[in-house]
Specification:
The protein has helices at about 1-10, 55-75, 95-105, 120-130, 145-165, 180-195, 205-215, 245, 265-275, 280-285, 290-300, 305-325, 330-349, and strands spanning about 15-20, 30-35, 40, 45-50, 80-85, 110, 175-180, 195-200, 220, 230-235, 250-255, 280. Helix 2 crosses helix 13 (about 330-349), helix 5 (about 145-165) crosses helix 6 and helix 5 (about 145-165) crosses helix 11 (about 290-300). Helix 2 links the parallel strand 4 (about 45-50) and strand 5 (about 80-85). The longest helix is centred in the last third of the chain and has 22 residues, at about 305-325. The strands form two sheets. Strands 1, 2, 3, 4, 5 and 6 form a six-stranded mixed beta sheet that branches. The chain has a six-stranded parallel beta sheet with strand order 9-8-7-10-11-12, with helices on both faces. The protein contains 13 helices and twelve strands. By secondary structure, it is an alpha/beta fold. Bound molecules: nicotinamide-adenine-dinucleotide. Nicotinamide-adenine-dinucleotide binds near residues 146, 201 and 237.
Amino acid sequence: MTLELLDTLARDGFEELHALHDWRSGARAFLVLDDTSGGPGFGGIRRWSYIDEAQALRDCLRLARGMTLKCALADLPAGGAKLVLLDRPELELDGAYRYLGEVVERLAGRYYSGPDVGTTERELAWVAERTRFVTQPGPEGPGELADATCAGVIAGIEAALEHLDGAVDWPRRTVLVQGLGEVGARVAGSARRRGARVLASEIDTERGESVARELDLELIDPSRELDPSCDVFAPCALGGIVHDLSLVRLRCRVIAGAANNVLANPGHGDRLHERGVLYVPDFAINSGALIRGARFHLDGIREPLPAIGARIAQIVTHILCRSRDEDLAPARVAHQEAQRRVEHRRAQS
Ligand code: NAD
Protein backbone atom coordinates (compact mmCIF):
# COMPACT_ATOMS: atom_id res chain seq x y z
CA MET A 1 0.00 0.00 0.00
CA THR A 2 2.70 2.50 1.06
CA LEU A 3 4.93 1.62 -1.86
CA GLU A 4 2.04 2.01 -4.28
CA LEU A 5 1.28 5.41 -2.81
CA LEU A 6 4.85 6.57 -3.11
CA ASP A 7 5.02 5.20 -6.63
CA THR A 8 1.91 7.20 -7.53
CA LEU A 9 3.37 10.40 -6.11
CA ALA A 10 6.66 9.84 -7.90
CA ARG A 11 5.16 8.77 -11.22
CA ASP A 12 2.82 11.75 -11.46
CA GLY A 13 5.13 14.27 -9.78
CA PHE A 14 3.15 15.08 -6.62
CA GLU A 15 5.22 16.54 -3.80
CA GLU A 16 3.53 15.62 -0.58
CA LEU A 17 0.59 13.71 0.83
CA HIS A 18 -0.74 13.90 4.39
CA ALA A 19 -3.21 11.32 5.69
CA LEU A 20 -4.95 12.91 8.66
CA HIS A 21 -7.00 11.58 11.55
CA ASP A 22 -8.33 13.40 14.61
CA TRP A 23 -9.60 11.17 17.39
CA ARG A 24 -11.58 14.02 19.04
CA SER A 25 -13.79 15.08 16.11
CA GLY A 26 -13.54 11.92 14.04
CA ALA A 27 -12.03 13.90 11.15
CA ARG A 28 -10.42 11.85 8.41
CA ALA A 29 -8.82 13.82 5.64
CA PHE A 30 -6.19 13.91 2.94
CA LEU A 31 -4.04 16.94 2.23
CA VAL A 32 -2.02 17.03 -0.98
CA LEU A 33 0.66 19.58 -1.80
CA ASP A 34 1.14 19.04 -5.49
CA ASP A 35 3.64 21.69 -6.43
CA THR A 36 5.24 24.40 -4.33
CA SER A 37 8.18 25.12 -6.63
CA GLY A 38 6.80 28.58 -7.49
CA GLY A 39 5.26 29.47 -4.11
CA PRO A 40 2.89 28.13 -1.46
CA GLY A 41 0.13 25.69 -2.31
CA PHE A 42 -3.39 27.12 -2.68
CA GLY A 43 -6.55 25.01 -2.66
CA GLY A 44 -9.83 24.88 -0.78
CA ILE A 45 -11.24 22.26 1.55
CA ARG A 46 -13.72 19.87 -0.06
CA ARG A 47 -16.09 18.01 2.25
CA TRP A 48 -17.85 15.14 0.54
CA SER A 49 -19.34 11.71 1.30
CA TYR A 50 -16.91 9.59 -0.66
CA ILE A 51 -17.66 5.95 -1.36
CA ASP A 52 -14.31 4.96 0.13
CA GLU A 53 -10.85 6.30 0.97
CA ALA A 54 -9.47 5.51 -2.45
CA GLN A 55 -12.07 7.71 -4.11
CA ALA A 56 -11.31 10.55 -1.68
CA LEU A 57 -7.59 10.29 -2.30
CA ARG A 58 -8.01 10.23 -6.07
CA ASP A 59 -10.22 13.31 -5.86
CA CYS A 60 -7.69 15.10 -3.67
CA LEU A 61 -4.81 14.37 -6.05
CA ARG A 62 -6.83 15.37 -9.11
CA LEU A 63 -8.05 18.61 -7.52
CA ALA A 64 -4.58 19.57 -6.27
CA ARG A 65 -3.18 19.01 -9.77
CA GLY A 66 -5.96 21.18 -11.19
CA MET A 67 -4.91 23.99 -8.84
CA THR A 68 -1.31 23.66 -10.00
CA LEU A 69 -2.38 24.05 -13.62
CA LYS A 70 -4.56 27.04 -12.74
CA CYS A 71 -1.74 28.77 -10.85
CA ALA A 72 0.70 28.15 -13.69
CA LEU A 73 -1.61 29.49 -16.39
CA ALA A 74 -2.50 32.54 -14.29
CA ASP A 75 1.21 33.15 -13.71
CA LEU A 76 0.79 33.25 -9.94
CA PRO A 77 3.72 32.74 -7.57
CA ALA A 78 1.79 29.84 -6.06
CA GLY A 79 1.13 26.17 -6.64
CA GLY A 80 -1.57 23.57 -6.31
CA ALA A 81 -2.85 21.91 -3.16
CA LYS A 82 -6.10 20.49 -1.82
CA LEU A 83 -7.61 19.21 1.39
CA VAL A 84 -10.49 16.74 1.32
CA LEU A 85 -12.47 15.94 4.44
CA LEU A 86 -14.40 12.67 4.32
CA ASP A 87 -17.95 13.49 5.36
CA ARG A 88 -19.68 10.99 7.63
CA PRO A 89 -22.77 11.23 9.86
CA GLU A 90 -20.68 10.85 13.03
CA LEU A 91 -18.29 13.68 12.09
CA GLU A 92 -18.22 16.49 14.65
CA LEU A 93 -18.20 19.29 12.14
CA ASP A 94 -16.91 22.31 14.03
CA GLY A 95 -14.24 20.24 15.79
CA ALA A 96 -13.13 18.72 12.48
CA TYR A 97 -12.66 22.11 10.84
CA ARG A 98 -10.84 23.52 13.89
CA TYR A 99 -8.53 20.49 13.73
CA LEU A 100 -7.89 21.14 10.03
CA GLY A 101 -7.08 24.74 10.96
CA GLU A 102 -4.42 23.44 13.35
CA VAL A 103 -2.97 21.24 10.60
CA VAL A 104 -2.85 24.18 8.20
CA GLU A 105 -1.21 26.38 10.83
CA ARG A 106 1.49 23.77 11.45
CA LEU A 107 2.41 24.00 7.75
CA ALA A 108 3.36 27.62 8.53
CA GLY A 109 2.33 29.18 5.22
CA ARG A 110 3.30 26.39 2.84
CA TYR A 111 -0.43 25.84 2.26
CA TYR A 112 -3.33 28.35 2.13
CA SER A 113 -6.80 26.91 2.42
CA GLY A 114 -10.20 28.28 1.43
CA PRO A 115 -13.72 27.41 0.31
CA ASP A 116 -14.83 24.51 -1.87
CA VAL A 117 -17.81 22.19 -2.09
CA GLY A 118 -19.06 21.59 1.47
CA THR A 119 -16.94 24.38 2.94
CA THR A 120 -18.67 27.73 3.10
CA GLU A 121 -18.18 30.81 5.28
CA ARG A 122 -19.45 28.97 8.35
CA GLU A 123 -16.81 26.24 8.10
CA LEU A 124 -14.06 28.70 7.13
CA ALA A 125 -14.78 30.70 10.28
CA TRP A 126 -13.97 27.54 12.33
CA VAL A 127 -10.74 27.00 10.37
CA ALA A 128 -9.81 30.66 10.83
CA GLU A 129 -10.01 30.26 14.63
CA ARG A 130 -6.84 28.16 14.41
CA THR A 131 -4.85 29.48 11.45
CA ARG A 132 -3.89 32.64 9.60
CA PHE A 133 -3.43 30.74 6.35
CA VAL A 134 -7.05 30.63 5.26
CA THR A 135 -9.35 32.81 3.21
CA GLN A 136 -11.18 34.80 5.84
CA PRO A 137 -14.87 35.35 5.25
CA GLY A 138 -16.18 38.91 5.60
CA PRO A 139 -14.31 42.21 5.54
CA GLU A 140 -11.05 40.66 6.82
CA GLY A 141 -10.70 38.61 3.65
CA PRO A 142 -10.16 39.09 -0.08
CA GLY A 143 -13.86 39.84 -0.73
CA GLU A 144 -16.58 37.86 -2.45
CA LEU A 145 -14.71 35.23 -4.41
CA ALA A 146 -17.68 34.26 -6.58
CA ASP A 147 -17.61 37.81 -8.02
CA ALA A 148 -13.99 37.25 -9.06
CA THR A 149 -14.84 33.89 -10.64
CA CYS A 150 -17.75 35.46 -12.51
CA ALA A 151 -15.56 38.33 -13.77
CA GLY A 152 -13.15 35.76 -15.19
CA VAL A 153 -15.87 33.64 -16.79
CA ILE A 154 -17.50 36.64 -18.48
CA ALA A 155 -14.11 37.87 -19.74
CA GLY A 156 -13.30 34.36 -21.00
CA ILE A 157 -16.63 34.11 -22.84
CA GLU A 158 -15.99 37.50 -24.45
CA ALA A 159 -12.50 36.42 -25.52
CA ALA A 160 -13.93 33.24 -27.07
CA LEU A 161 -16.67 35.08 -28.98
CA GLU A 162 -14.17 37.67 -30.18
CA HIS A 163 -11.88 34.87 -31.33
CA LEU A 164 -14.70 33.11 -33.16
CA ASP A 165 -16.56 35.99 -34.78
CA GLY A 166 -14.29 39.03 -34.38
CA ALA A 167 -16.90 40.63 -32.07
CA VAL A 168 -18.58 39.92 -28.74
CA ASP A 169 -21.97 41.41 -29.64
CA TRP A 170 -23.85 40.35 -26.49
CA PRO A 171 -27.32 41.45 -27.69
CA ARG A 172 -27.15 38.90 -30.53
CA ARG A 173 -26.12 36.04 -28.23
CA THR A 174 -27.96 33.26 -26.49
CA VAL A 175 -26.25 31.93 -23.38
CA LEU A 176 -27.29 28.75 -21.59
CA VAL A 177 -26.21 28.65 -17.94
CA GLN A 178 -26.28 25.31 -16.13
CA GLY A 179 -26.63 25.83 -12.37
CA LEU A 180 -27.78 29.06 -10.74
CA GLY A 181 -25.63 28.85 -7.62
CA GLU A 182 -23.07 31.36 -6.36
CA VAL A 183 -21.26 31.72 -9.68
CA GLY A 184 -23.93 30.66 -12.18
CA ALA A 185 -26.45 33.26 -10.97
CA ARG A 186 -23.80 35.95 -11.29
CA VAL A 187 -22.78 34.81 -14.79
CA ALA A 188 -26.43 34.68 -15.89
CA GLY A 189 -27.08 38.15 -14.43
CA SER A 190 -23.98 39.65 -16.08
CA ALA A 191 -24.82 38.19 -19.49
CA ARG A 192 -28.42 39.41 -19.16
CA ARG A 193 -27.34 42.94 -18.19
CA ARG A 194 -25.14 42.99 -21.30
CA GLY A 195 -28.20 42.27 -23.41
CA ALA A 196 -27.89 38.53 -24.09
CA ARG A 197 -30.83 36.15 -24.10
CA VAL A 198 -30.17 33.85 -21.15
CA LEU A 199 -31.56 30.35 -20.70
CA ALA A 200 -30.83 28.62 -17.40
CA SER A 201 -31.35 25.34 -15.60
CA GLU A 202 -31.25 24.65 -11.87
CA ILE A 203 -32.11 21.41 -10.08
CA ASP A 204 -33.15 23.32 -6.94
CA THR A 205 -36.55 24.33 -8.30
CA GLU A 206 -37.28 26.99 -5.71
CA ARG A 207 -33.92 28.65 -6.15
CA GLY A 208 -34.13 28.42 -9.95
CA GLU A 209 -37.54 30.08 -10.07
CA SER A 210 -36.57 32.86 -7.73
CA VAL A 211 -33.25 33.68 -9.50
CA ALA A 212 -34.88 33.44 -12.95
CA ARG A 213 -37.62 35.85 -11.92
CA GLU A 214 -35.18 38.30 -10.39
CA LEU A 215 -32.75 38.28 -13.35
CA ASP A 216 -35.28 37.84 -16.15
CA LEU A 217 -33.96 34.47 -17.33
CA GLU A 218 -35.76 31.75 -19.28
CA LEU A 219 -35.79 28.72 -17.02
CA ILE A 220 -35.54 25.32 -18.69
CA ASP A 221 -36.12 21.90 -17.23
CA PRO A 222 -32.83 20.24 -16.09
CA SER A 223 -33.77 17.11 -18.07
CA ARG A 224 -33.59 19.25 -21.24
CA GLU A 225 -30.66 21.41 -20.22
CA LEU A 226 -28.34 20.17 -22.96
CA ASP A 227 -30.80 20.48 -25.83
CA PRO A 228 -31.39 24.18 -26.62
CA SER A 229 -29.39 25.70 -29.42
CA CYS A 230 -27.21 28.54 -28.12
CA ASP A 231 -24.00 30.47 -28.73
CA VAL A 232 -22.50 29.72 -25.34
CA PHE A 233 -23.08 26.85 -22.94
CA ALA A 234 -21.79 27.91 -19.51
CA PRO A 235 -21.53 24.92 -17.14
CA CYS A 236 -21.68 26.31 -13.60
CA ALA A 237 -22.81 23.21 -11.69
CA LEU A 238 -20.77 20.03 -11.28
CA GLY A 239 -17.88 18.57 -13.28
CA GLY A 240 -17.95 15.79 -15.88
CA ILE A 241 -20.79 17.32 -17.87
CA VAL A 242 -19.14 16.70 -21.26
CA HIS A 243 -19.14 12.93 -21.79
CA ASP A 244 -19.95 10.45 -24.55
CA LEU A 245 -23.71 10.93 -24.33
CA SER A 246 -23.91 14.68 -23.68
CA LEU A 247 -21.31 15.55 -26.30
CA VAL A 248 -23.56 14.61 -29.21
CA ARG A 249 -26.56 16.41 -27.71
CA LEU A 250 -24.95 19.80 -27.09
CA ARG A 251 -25.91 22.40 -29.70
CA CYS A 252 -23.62 25.27 -28.82
CA ARG A 253 -20.66 26.99 -30.47
CA VAL A 254 -18.73 27.72 -27.28
CA ILE A 255 -18.46 25.92 -23.93
CA ALA A 256 -17.17 28.27 -21.26
CA GLY A 257 -18.16 28.23 -17.61
CA ALA A 258 -17.08 28.06 -13.99
CA ALA A 259 -17.37 24.34 -13.29
CA ASN A 260 -14.19 22.39 -12.59
CA ASN A 261 -13.35 19.27 -14.63
CA VAL A 262 -15.98 19.89 -17.30
CA LEU A 263 -14.58 17.14 -19.55
CA ALA A 264 -15.16 13.60 -18.35
CA ASN A 265 -11.77 12.82 -19.89
CA PRO A 266 -9.26 14.65 -22.14
CA GLY A 267 -10.47 12.76 -25.23
CA HIS A 268 -13.77 14.62 -24.98
CA GLY A 269 -11.87 17.86 -25.57
CA ASP A 270 -10.50 16.39 -28.81
CA ARG A 271 -13.97 15.36 -29.92
CA LEU A 272 -15.37 18.84 -29.25
CA HIS A 273 -12.53 20.26 -31.31
CA GLU A 274 -13.30 17.87 -34.18
CA ARG A 275 -16.97 18.86 -34.02
CA GLY A 276 -16.07 22.56 -34.23
CA VAL A 277 -17.19 23.42 -30.70
CA LEU A 278 -14.86 25.89 -29.03
CA TYR A 279 -14.15 24.63 -25.51
CA VAL A 280 -12.51 27.13 -23.17
CA PRO A 281 -10.57 24.99 -20.68
CA ASP A 282 -11.95 25.18 -17.17
CA PHE A 283 -8.63 25.78 -15.47
CA ALA A 284 -7.97 28.74 -17.78
CA ILE A 285 -11.32 30.47 -17.31
CA ASN A 286 -12.34 29.76 -13.71
CA SER A 287 -9.26 31.01 -11.85
CA GLY A 288 -10.73 34.40 -10.86
CA ALA A 289 -11.20 33.45 -7.20
CA LEU A 290 -7.74 31.91 -7.04
CA ILE A 291 -6.15 35.05 -8.50
CA ARG A 292 -8.04 37.22 -6.05
CA GLY A 293 -7.18 35.00 -3.06
CA ALA A 294 -3.51 34.49 -3.93
CA ARG A 295 -2.87 38.17 -4.66
CA PHE A 296 -4.56 39.08 -1.37
CA HIS A 297 -2.60 36.61 0.74
CA LEU A 298 0.76 36.96 -0.98
CA ASP A 299 0.80 40.66 -1.95
CA GLY A 300 -1.84 42.20 0.33
CA ILE A 301 -3.78 43.43 -2.75
CA ARG A 302 -7.43 42.96 -3.63
CA GLU A 303 -6.93 42.70 -7.38
CA PRO A 304 -9.78 44.65 -9.04
CA LEU A 305 -12.32 42.59 -10.97
CA PRO A 306 -11.56 44.26 -14.35
CA ALA A 307 -7.88 43.40 -13.91
CA ILE A 308 -8.79 39.78 -13.17
CA GLY A 309 -11.00 39.74 -16.27
CA ALA A 310 -8.23 41.19 -18.43
CA ARG A 311 -5.74 38.63 -17.15
CA ILE A 312 -8.08 35.72 -17.92
CA ALA A 313 -9.06 37.11 -21.34
CA GLN A 314 -5.38 37.26 -22.25
CA ILE A 315 -4.80 33.66 -21.19
CA VAL A 316 -7.89 32.42 -23.08
CA THR A 317 -6.99 34.32 -26.25
CA HIS A 318 -3.46 32.94 -26.17
CA ILE A 319 -4.74 29.35 -25.81
CA LEU A 320 -7.36 29.71 -28.54
CA CYS A 321 -4.89 31.25 -31.00
CA ARG A 322 -2.41 28.43 -30.41
CA SER A 323 -5.21 25.91 -30.76
CA ARG A 324 -6.18 27.36 -34.14
CA ASP A 325 -2.59 27.64 -35.37
CA GLU A 326 -1.67 24.10 -34.35
CA ASP A 327 -5.10 22.50 -34.94
CA LEU A 328 -4.94 21.08 -31.44
CA ALA A 329 -7.83 21.00 -28.95
CA PRO A 330 -7.72 24.00 -26.55
CA ALA A 331 -7.70 21.66 -23.54
CA ARG A 332 -4.51 19.99 -24.86
CA VAL A 333 -2.91 23.38 -25.53
CA ALA A 334 -3.80 24.68 -22.06
CA HIS A 335 -2.46 21.54 -20.43
CA GLN A 336 0.81 21.68 -22.40
CA GLU A 337 1.22 25.37 -21.63
CA ALA A 338 0.63 24.92 -17.89
CA GLN A 339 2.86 21.85 -17.76
CA ARG A 340 5.67 23.70 -19.55
CA ARG A 341 5.48 26.52 -17.01
CA VAL A 342 5.50 24.09 -14.06
CA GLU A 343 8.53 22.25 -15.45
CA HIS A 344 10.31 25.55 -16.01
CA ARG A 345 9.67 26.60 -12.40
CA ARG A 346 10.79 23.24 -11.08
CA ALA A 347 13.99 23.42 -13.10
CA GLN A 348 14.71 26.83 -11.58
CA SER A 349 13.85 25.94 -7.99
P1 NAD B 1 -22.92 26.28 -5.99
O1 NAD B 1 -23.05 25.02 -5.22
O2 NAD B 1 -23.25 27.58 -5.33
O3 NAD B 1 -23.85 26.20 -7.31
C1 NAD B 1 -24.02 25.06 -8.08
C2 NAD B 1 -25.51 25.03 -8.47
O4 NAD B 1 -25.69 24.07 -9.50
C3 NAD B 1 -26.42 24.65 -7.32
O5 NAD B 1 -27.44 25.63 -7.18
C4 NAD B 1 -26.99 23.28 -7.75
O6 NAD B 1 -28.31 23.07 -7.31
C5 NAD B 1 -26.94 23.40 -9.25
N1 NAD B 1 -26.89 22.15 -10.00
C6 NAD B 1 -26.21 21.00 -9.70
N2 NAD B 1 -26.38 20.09 -10.69
C7 NAD B 1 -27.16 20.68 -11.64
C8 NAD B 1 -27.66 20.27 -12.89
N3 NAD B 1 -27.40 19.06 -13.41
N4 NAD B 1 -28.42 21.13 -13.60
C9 NAD B 1 -28.69 22.37 -13.12
N5 NAD B 1 -28.24 22.82 -11.92
C10 NAD B 1 -27.48 21.99 -11.20
O7 NAD B 1 -21.45 26.29 -6.59
P2 NAD B 1 -20.63 27.52 -7.16
O8 NAD B 1 -19.77 28.09 -6.09
O9 NAD B 1 -21.57 28.42 -7.91
O10 NAD B 1 -19.66 26.78 -8.18
C11 NAD B 1 -20.16 26.27 -9.41
C12 NAD B 1 -19.06 25.47 -10.09
O11 NAD B 1 -17.94 26.33 -10.33
C13 NAD B 1 -18.51 24.30 -9.28
O12 NAD B 1 -18.15 23.27 -10.16
C14 NAD B 1 -17.26 24.88 -8.62
O13 NAD B 1 -16.31 23.87 -8.33
C15 NAD B 1 -16.76 25.79 -9.72
N6 NAD B 1 -15.94 26.91 -9.25
C16 NAD B 1 -16.46 27.79 -8.34
C17 NAD B 1 -15.67 28.85 -7.90
C18 NAD B 1 -16.21 29.88 -6.93
O14 NAD B 1 -15.64 30.96 -6.82
N7 NAD B 1 -17.34 29.59 -6.22
C19 NAD B 1 -14.38 29.01 -8.38
C20 NAD B 1 -13.88 28.10 -9.33
C21 NAD B 1 -14.69 27.05 -9.75
